[in-house]
From TrEMBL:
InterPro entries: D-isomer_2_OHA_DH_cat_dom (IPR006139), D-isomer_DH_CS (IPR029753), D-isomer_DH_CS1 (IPR029752), D-isomer_DH_NAD-bd (IPR006140), D-LDH-like (IPR058205), NAD(P)-bd_dom_sf (IPR036291)
Keyword Disulfide bond included in the entry's annotation: no
Keywords: NAD, Oxidoreductase
Protein name: 2-hydroxyacid dehydrogenase
Source organism (scientific name): Streptomyces triticagri
Length: 335
């Protein structure tokens, strides 16, 4: 059968086509799945979506009416999918439960070091042959405190790097990770972690309970010269509150690979028409802020694992198997 894949990046396309060769045909589209593009899927039993797809009630209804029965999401996160509606419509939905945690953890550290050592500003200056050091003063992270919110596989990988820097480790999670404890991590409540950490990195999923995990009160409780990094999900931070704190001159640096209103912006070229999002437009003007477009996972290793798992999810569906990657437990008929 032909699989229709939405939101495929140019680097990703040849990897997808190579992986699916000999199994199923795959047609790759660079457009994202939303209410305007859902009709394209008509006649395709199986589709694949990216993390920035919008699979709300209307989109899912359109997909089901067009004959779609299986959705293979090429990401770990699935907060963009209304699973209750999908189940009611009889759709099977699967995700990628696991891929290289190092890709995201290493990128989180890239953001941390970029804002700490003013790399973006320094690189921009040297292009103009301005070699002054004014305004580029960073600080050693050795001996300082790293707070890790979420100590699963990615949080653990981040903590291992922090341990290599010689940092004190504080952790917060619903359960302790023994590997992090072995590194010397002390598990504390969120308020203490935010108050004592020089560097705070977020590695938790976006759920109703974690939306705006870092809100106005939490931001105010952090050190004035703290570094805040988010490479997980944009909705974990109240961006309006963050902008308010930045306006007051707080924080040594903020590194964001995600943004709570990134859908319809990230992965697209908006350089000509500009954007209407005043909050994001203001956010990127702060000299101590670096924003990237949800690229932490984007390594050949991680993308390769994501595609391999997506292929396996499709094969499991077409051959009547079920795996741990299935989010909506509606199995296809094997008759």
């Amino acid at each position: 059968m032909e699989i229709l894949a939405f939101g495929v990046q140019s680097d990703e396309r040849p990897l997808l086509e190579k992986a699916f060769a000999g199994h199923h045909d795959i047609r790759c589209l660079d457009v994202f799945l939303d209410e305007d593009t859902a009709l394209i899927a008509a006649g395709h039993e199986v589709i694949s979506t990216s993390v920035n797809a919008s699979l709300n009630n209307r989109v899912l209804q359109t997909l089901a009416a067009g004959g779609t029965q299986f959705i293979a999401q090429r990401s770990t996160g699935f907060n963009n999918i209304d699973l209750q509606v999908a189940e009611r419509l009889g759709l099977t939905v699967a995700r990628v439960s696991y891929y290289s945690p190092y890709s995201v953890a290493e990128f989180a550290w890239t953001l941390a070091m970029a804002v700490n050592r003013r790399i973006v500003r320094a690189a921009g200056r040297t292009r103009d042959f301005d070699f002054r050091l004014d305004g580029l003063l960073g600080r050693d992270l050795h001996g300082r405190t790293a707070g890790v919110l979420g100590t699963g596989k990615i949080g653990e990988a981040f903590a291992r790097i922090a341990h290599g820097f010689g940092m004190r480790l504080l952790g917060w999670d619903v359960a302790e990770n023994p590997a992090c404890v072995e590194l010397g991590m002390e598990y504390v409540d969120k308020d203490r972690l935010l108050a004592e950490s020089d560097l705070v990195s977020l590695h938790v999923p976006l759920l109703p309970a974690t939306e705006h995990l870092i809100g106005a009160a939490q931001l105010k409780s952090m050190k004035d010269d703290a570094i805040l990094v988010n490479s997980s999900r944009g909705g974990l931070i109240d961006t309006e509150a963050l902008v308010g704190e930045l306006r007051q001159g707080r924080f040594a640096g903020v590194g964001l690979d995600v943004y709570e209103a990134e859908a319809g912006l990230f992965f697209l070229d908006k350089s000509i028409q500009g954007i209407e999002d005043d909050t994001l437009a203001r956010l990127v003007t702060f000299p101590n802020v670096v924003v990237t477009s949800h690229q932490a996972y984007y390594t050949v290793d991680a993308v390769g694992e994501i595609i391999a798992t997506t292929l396996q999810n499709v094969l499991d569906y077409t051959e009547g198997r079920r795996s741990e990657n299935v989010l909506v437990p509606v199995l296809p008929s094997t008759t």
